[in-house]
Amino acid sequence: MARSKRITFLAELTKGYHTVLDIGSDHGYVLLEALQKGYIKKGIASDLRVEPLLQAQKNLENQDAKTILSDGFLNIHESFDLAIISGMGAYLIGDILNHAPKDDITYILQANDKPEILRTYLMEHGFMITDEFVVRDRFFYVIMKVKRGKMALNSKDLILGPFLKHKSEAIPYFEKKIQMLSKLLNQVDEKRKQEIKELITIYQSNL
Ligand SMILES: C[S@@+](CC[C@H](N)C(=O)[O-])C[C@H]1O[C@@H](n2cnc3c(N)ncnc32)[C@H](O)[C@@H]1O
User: Fold this and answer.
1) Of 15, 26, 49, 145, which residue is 20 to 30 A from 152 by alpha carbon distance?
2) Is 19 domain-assigned?
3) What is the CA radius of gyration of the chain?
4) How far apart are CA 190 and CA 197, in angstroms?
């Protein structure tokens, strides 16, 4: 079955890792793709809810993968070298990372909204972004590669992304942001209007 560009891209980012934990795996498609393509050796699919976990178990039944019912990292006791947290809100990803292991593992994070909130969280909680990507699927999705470490981002970096701001493939994403924000201008009060204008200026400065 053809997978969405977002799922395919997430799976490609697992290349070269051994054991990959997918938190909030839902259907388990990212791990399925990564295992089927031979990008990784083992998968751990975990979810807060039983129903999606059973679905992942079914989808992954012929693969070297296990499923674990867990709220974020709380019930994960196995070792892994990459963790994926994708398809959730930025605040929820932050809540989950509050209990991330202290070990030197890599994270692939994809928030459905507010990447600037996620970048702020990462900076304030001892994580550093090591790369960023944007994928155009049904929407634009920002994906971050992250490790534990220190980073200092200014307000422009928080909005644009310290790596995305240098990538030409991110320009259509910035243009879309400008378009969406411009539409909002007529629907908000003066204070919000000023904030939106500042955001538009930041996006425009990077085109
Ligand atoms: C929208 S789906 C995203 C699925 C997949 N990760 C993706 O990128 O397509 C979000 C999944 O996260 C799960 N989830 C939400 N909060 C969670 C938590 N605290 N710990 C583990 N899973 C969680 C939900 O049950 C749901 O299956």
Assistant:
1) 15
2) yes
3) 18
4) 10
Q: Determine if ligand 1 sits within 6 Å of the CB of residue 85.
A: no
Residues spanned by the domain of 179: 167-207
| Mean local confidence (pLDDT), 108-133 | 97
- Using the predicted structure, report yes or no on whether residue 107 has a pLDDT greater than 70: yes
Q: How far is the CA of 42 from the centre of ligand 1 (A)?
A: 20
33 lines ligand 1 (CB under 6 A): no
Q: How far is the CA of 47 from the centre of ligand 1 (A)?
A: 6
Q: Check if 87 has its Cβ closer than 6 Å to any atom of ligand 1.
A: yes
Does any ligand 1 atom lie closer than 6 A to the CB of residue 49? yes
Does the pLDDT of residue 1 top 80, yes or no? no
What CATH number corresponds to the domain at position 89? 3.40.50.150
- Same domain for 27 and 125, yes or no, is yes
Asked if residue 93 is part of any domain, the answer here is yes
- For the chain, what is the mean pLDDT? 96
Take atom 24 of ligand 1 and give the residue whose Cα is closest.
Answer: 24
**C-alpha to C-alpha distance for 60 and 205, rounded to whole angstroms:** 45
Please write the tens of the pLDDT for every residue from 147-201: 999 999 999 999 999 999 999 999 999 999 999 999 999 899 999 999 999 999 9
Confidence of residue 3 (pLDDT cuts 50, 70, 90): confident
